[in-house]
Design brief:
Helix content: 40-55%
Radius of gyration: 18 Å
Number of helices: 10
Shape: globular
Strand content: 5-15%
Number of strands: 6
Protein backbone atom coordinates (compact mmCIF):
# COMPACT_ATOMS: atom_id res chain seq x y z
CA UNK A 1 0.00 0.00 0.00
CA UNK A 2 2.80 2.40 0.91
CA UNK A 3 4.66 1.88 -2.37
CA UNK A 4 1.44 2.34 -4.34
CA UNK A 5 0.69 5.58 -2.49
CA UNK A 6 4.24 6.77 -3.13
CA UNK A 7 3.87 5.96 -6.84
CA UNK A 8 0.62 7.93 -7.00
CA UNK A 9 2.28 10.80 -5.17
CA UNK A 10 5.20 10.83 -7.61
CA UNK A 11 2.81 10.73 -10.56
CA UNK A 12 0.80 13.64 -9.18
CA UNK A 13 3.93 15.72 -8.69
CA UNK A 14 5.20 14.90 -12.18
CA UNK A 15 1.89 16.09 -13.59
CA UNK A 16 2.17 19.34 -11.65
CA UNK A 17 5.65 20.03 -12.98
CA UNK A 18 5.12 18.99 -16.60
CA UNK A 19 1.94 21.06 -16.85
CA UNK A 20 3.85 24.19 -15.83
CA UNK A 21 5.43 26.77 -18.10
CA UNK A 22 9.07 25.90 -18.86
CA UNK A 23 10.41 29.13 -20.36
CA UNK A 24 13.87 30.01 -18.97
CA UNK A 25 13.59 32.44 -16.09
CA UNK A 26 10.15 31.22 -15.07
CA UNK A 27 9.16 30.88 -11.41
CA UNK A 28 5.87 29.11 -10.73
CA UNK A 29 4.21 28.65 -7.32
CA UNK A 30 2.00 25.64 -6.65
CA UNK A 31 0.07 25.19 -3.41
CA UNK A 32 -0.33 21.54 -2.50
CA UNK A 33 -3.99 20.53 -2.46
CA UNK A 34 -4.37 16.93 -3.65
CA UNK A 35 -3.80 14.02 -1.21
CA UNK A 36 -1.18 12.48 -3.52
CA UNK A 37 0.85 15.68 -3.80
CA UNK A 38 0.51 16.25 -0.06
CA UNK A 39 2.01 12.80 0.58
CA UNK A 40 5.03 13.62 -1.59
CA UNK A 41 5.41 17.01 0.12
CA UNK A 42 5.39 15.45 3.58
CA UNK A 43 7.92 12.78 2.60
CA UNK A 44 10.34 15.36 1.21
CA UNK A 45 9.94 17.87 4.03
CA UNK A 46 10.16 15.29 6.80
CA UNK A 47 13.31 13.96 5.12
CA UNK A 48 14.87 17.43 5.23
CA UNK A 49 13.81 18.04 8.83
CA UNK A 50 15.34 14.68 9.83
CA UNK A 51 18.54 15.66 8.02
CA UNK A 52 18.87 18.82 10.12
CA UNK A 53 17.81 17.09 13.32
CA UNK A 54 20.53 14.49 12.77
CA UNK A 55 23.16 17.23 12.49
CA UNK A 56 21.78 18.98 15.57
CA UNK A 57 21.96 15.85 17.70
CA UNK A 58 25.54 15.25 16.58
CA UNK A 59 26.44 18.78 17.63
CA UNK A 60 24.56 18.47 20.94
CA UNK A 61 26.30 15.18 21.70
CA UNK A 62 29.66 16.90 21.26
CA UNK A 63 28.96 20.29 22.85
CA UNK A 64 25.72 20.12 24.82
CA UNK A 65 25.17 19.78 28.59
CA UNK A 66 26.68 16.68 30.17
CA UNK A 67 23.23 15.69 31.46
CA UNK A 68 20.79 15.43 28.57
CA UNK A 69 17.51 16.14 30.34
CA UNK A 70 14.34 16.85 28.41
CA UNK A 71 14.03 20.23 30.14
CA UNK A 72 17.47 21.36 28.93
CA UNK A 73 16.26 21.25 25.33
CA UNK A 74 12.86 22.93 25.80
CA UNK A 75 13.93 26.18 24.14
CA UNK A 76 15.51 24.36 21.22
CA UNK A 77 12.41 22.23 20.66
CA UNK A 78 10.10 25.25 20.71
CA UNK A 79 12.30 27.14 18.24
CA UNK A 80 12.75 24.33 15.75
CA UNK A 81 9.07 23.36 15.95
CA UNK A 82 8.33 26.69 14.25
CA UNK A 83 11.07 26.37 11.63
CA UNK A 84 10.31 26.33 7.92
CA UNK A 85 11.75 23.38 6.02
CA UNK A 86 12.78 23.66 2.36
CA UNK A 87 14.04 20.77 0.25
CA UNK A 88 15.30 22.20 -3.03
CA UNK A 89 16.07 19.75 -5.83
CA UNK A 90 18.42 20.98 -8.55
CA UNK A 91 18.24 18.91 -11.74
CA UNK A 92 20.62 19.17 -14.68
CA UNK A 93 22.22 17.10 -17.47
CA UNK A 94 25.90 16.22 -17.07
CA UNK A 95 28.52 16.06 -19.84
CA UNK A 96 27.64 12.44 -20.62
CA UNK A 97 23.97 13.24 -21.09
CA UNK A 98 23.00 11.68 -17.79
CA UNK A 99 20.31 13.43 -15.70
CA UNK A 100 21.56 14.40 -12.25
CA UNK A 101 19.85 15.64 -9.07
CA UNK A 102 21.26 17.28 -5.96
CA UNK A 103 19.16 17.89 -2.82
CA UNK A 104 19.70 21.06 -0.81
CA UNK A 105 18.29 20.87 2.72
CA UNK A 106 17.31 24.25 4.18
CA UNK A 107 15.85 25.05 7.60
CA UNK A 108 14.91 28.51 8.83
CA UNK A 109 15.88 30.18 12.09
CA UNK A 110 19.07 29.99 14.09
CA UNK A 111 21.49 27.20 13.28
CA UNK A 112 21.77 24.29 15.70
CA UNK A 113 24.87 25.66 17.43
CA UNK A 114 23.00 28.85 18.37
CA UNK A 115 19.62 27.28 19.17
CA UNK A 116 20.94 24.45 21.35
CA UNK A 117 22.02 25.04 24.97
CA UNK A 118 25.74 25.74 25.25
CA UNK A 119 28.23 27.06 27.77
CA UNK A 120 27.72 30.65 28.91
CA UNK A 121 29.93 33.20 27.20
CA UNK A 122 30.48 31.11 24.08
CA UNK A 123 29.97 33.27 20.98
CA UNK A 124 28.04 31.33 18.35
CA UNK A 125 26.97 32.83 14.97
CA UNK A 126 23.27 32.58 14.20
CA UNK A 127 23.56 32.23 10.40
CA UNK A 128 26.29 29.65 9.81
CA UNK A 129 27.13 26.45 11.66
CA UNK A 130 30.72 26.42 12.98
CA UNK A 131 32.62 23.37 11.72
CA UNK A 132 29.37 22.28 10.08
CA UNK A 133 30.98 19.50 8.04
CA UNK A 134 31.66 17.53 11.23
CA UNK A 135 27.97 17.27 12.03
CA UNK A 136 26.09 17.20 8.71
CA UNK A 137 26.20 14.48 6.07
CA UNK A 138 27.31 16.58 3.11
CA UNK A 139 27.46 13.59 0.76
CA UNK A 140 26.06 13.71 -2.77
CA UNK A 141 23.19 14.00 -3.47
CA UNK A 142 22.57 15.71 -0.09
CA UNK A 143 23.89 19.19 0.70
CA UNK A 144 23.56 21.21 3.90
CA UNK A 145 22.18 24.66 2.99
CA UNK A 146 24.17 27.45 4.65
CA UNK A 147 25.28 31.08 4.21
CA UNK A 148 28.91 31.82 5.13
CA UNK A 149 29.82 35.35 6.18
CA UNK A 150 31.32 37.65 3.55
CA UNK A 151 30.45 35.46 0.58
CA UNK A 152 29.92 37.03 -2.86
CA UNK A 153 26.35 36.59 -4.06
CA UNK A 154 24.20 38.06 -6.80
CA UNK A 155 21.22 37.52 -4.51
CA UNK A 156 22.88 39.46 -1.70
CA UNK A 157 23.87 42.32 -3.99
CA UNK A 158 20.45 42.52 -5.66
CA UNK A 159 18.57 42.57 -2.35
CA UNK A 160 21.00 44.74 -0.37
CA UNK A 161 18.73 47.79 -0.48
CA UNK A 162 15.53 45.90 0.31
CA UNK A 163 14.80 46.51 3.98
CA UNK A 164 11.99 43.93 3.96
CA UNK A 165 14.48 41.22 2.97
CA UNK A 166 17.17 42.11 5.50
CA UNK A 167 16.22 39.49 8.07
CA UNK A 168 15.27 36.84 5.56
CA UNK A 169 18.64 36.92 3.84
CA UNK A 170 20.18 35.20 6.83
CA UNK A 171 17.41 33.13 8.36
CA UNK A 172 15.03 31.92 5.62
CA UNK A 173 15.24 28.26 4.59
CA UNK A 174 14.63 29.10 0.94
CA UNK A 175 17.35 31.76 0.91
CA UNK A 176 19.87 29.39 2.46
CA UNK A 177 19.14 26.78 -0.19
CA UNK A 178 19.40 29.28 -3.07
CA UNK A 179 22.65 30.72 -1.75
CA UNK A 180 24.13 27.23 -1.48
CA UNK A 181 23.09 26.34 -5.04
CA UNK A 182 24.57 29.64 -6.20
CA UNK A 183 27.84 28.75 -4.45
CA UNK A 184 27.94 25.39 -6.25
CA UNK A 185 27.25 27.04 -9.63
CA UNK A 186 30.00 29.63 -9.15
CA UNK A 187 32.41 26.90 -8.01
CA UNK A 188 31.65 24.84 -11.13
CA UNK A 189 30.16 21.94 -9.18
CA UNK A 190 26.89 22.17 -11.11
CA UNK A 191 26.01 24.02 -14.35
CA UNK A 192 23.68 26.95 -14.86
CA UNK A 193 20.43 26.37 -16.71
CA UNK A 194 19.03 23.56 -14.61
CA UNK A 195 15.56 23.06 -13.16
CA UNK A 196 14.59 23.57 -9.52
CA UNK A 197 11.75 21.86 -7.69
CA UNK A 198 11.53 23.48 -4.26
CA UNK A 199 9.36 21.91 -1.56
CA UNK A 200 8.55 24.38 1.21
CA UNK A 201 6.54 23.79 4.39
CA UNK A 202 4.65 27.10 4.12
CA UNK A 203 3.93 29.78 1.48
CA UNK A 204 7.16 31.69 0.70
CA UNK A 205 7.35 35.28 1.95
CA UNK A 206 7.71 38.21 -0.46
CA UNK A 207 11.47 38.44 0.12
CA UNK A 208 11.93 34.78 -0.84
CA UNK A 209 9.70 35.19 -3.89
CA UNK A 210 11.90 38.05 -5.01
CA UNK A 211 14.99 35.92 -4.41
CA UNK A 212 13.59 33.05 -6.49
CA UNK A 213 13.00 35.40 -9.43
CA UNK A 214 16.44 37.03 -9.18
CA UNK A 215 18.07 33.58 -9.06
CA UNK A 216 16.01 32.33 -12.00
CA UNK A 217 16.95 35.32 -14.16
CA UNK A 218 20.63 35.35 -13.17
CA UNK A 219 21.33 31.64 -13.65
CA UNK A 220 18.72 30.77 -16.33
CA UNK A 221 16.93 28.29 -14.08
CA UNK A 222 13.27 27.27 -14.28
CA UNK A 223 11.85 27.10 -10.76
CA UNK A 224 8.77 25.36 -9.41
CA UNK A 225 7.97 26.13 -5.78
CA UNK A 226 5.58 23.56 -4.31
CA UNK A 227 4.44 24.67 -0.88
CA UNK A 228 2.05 23.58 1.85
CA UNK A 229 -0.86 25.87 2.80
CA UNK A 230 -0.18 28.28 5.64
CA UNK A 231 -0.28 26.56 9.02
CA UNK A 232 -2.70 28.02 11.52
CA UNK A 233 -3.26 26.93 15.15
CA UNK A 234 -6.09 24.45 15.16
CA UNK A 235 -5.44 23.38 11.57
CA UNK A 236 -6.58 19.91 10.58
CA UNK A 237 -5.59 17.37 7.97
CA UNK A 238 -2.18 16.85 6.41
CA UNK A 239 -0.73 20.26 7.31
CA UNK A 240 -1.38 19.54 10.99
CA UNK A 241 0.02 16.02 10.55
CA UNK A 242 3.34 17.42 9.28
CA UNK A 243 3.59 19.70 12.31
CA UNK A 244 2.76 16.81 14.64
CA UNK A 245 5.52 14.74 13.01
CA UNK A 246 8.05 17.50 13.71
CA UNK A 247 6.85 17.80 17.30
CA UNK A 248 7.14 14.05 17.86
CA UNK A 249 10.73 13.95 16.58
CA UNK A 250 11.69 16.94 18.73
CA UNK A 251 10.04 15.52 21.85
CA UNK A 252 12.55 12.64 21.94
CA UNK A 253 15.56 14.81 21.05
CA UNK A 254 17.32 14.43 24.40
CA UNK A 255 17.11 10.65 24.04
CA UNK A 256 18.61 10.88 20.55
CA UNK A 257 21.50 12.90 21.98
CA UNK A 258 22.09 10.25 24.67
CA UNK A 259 22.13 7.51 22.04
CA UNK A 260 24.48 9.57 19.88
CA UNK A 261 26.94 9.88 22.75
CA UNK A 262 26.69 6.16 23.42
CA UNK A 263 27.35 5.37 19.76
CA UNK A 264 24.01 3.64 19.34
CA UNK A 265 22.96 5.56 16.21
CA UNK A 266 24.33 4.48 12.83
CA UNK A 267 24.77 6.98 10.00
CA UNK A 268 21.58 7.22 7.98
CA UNK A 269 21.81 9.59 5.05
CA UNK A 270 18.69 11.04 3.48
CA UNK A 271 17.64 8.96 0.46
CA UNK A 272 17.52 10.32 -3.07
CA UNK A 273 13.87 11.29 -3.59
Amino acid sequence: MTSFRSFRAAAAVALLLTSSITVAGTVKYIEVTSPEAMLAAKENLVSTFKYHLRGAQRYAAAHGPATTTERAYTGFRMEWAKATAAQVKYRWIDSTGRPRTTLYHGLSGRVAAAALPHEAGVAVPSFDMPDWAQYYSDVNPNVYARIPDGEHSILEESMAGDSTARLGRGYDAEMRALRTIERDILAGNIPRGGVIAAWVSQPPCQACRKAFQIFSDAYHVNIHVIHLPAYEPGATGDVRLFQMTKNRMLRDFHLRVENERAGKIADNFCPRM
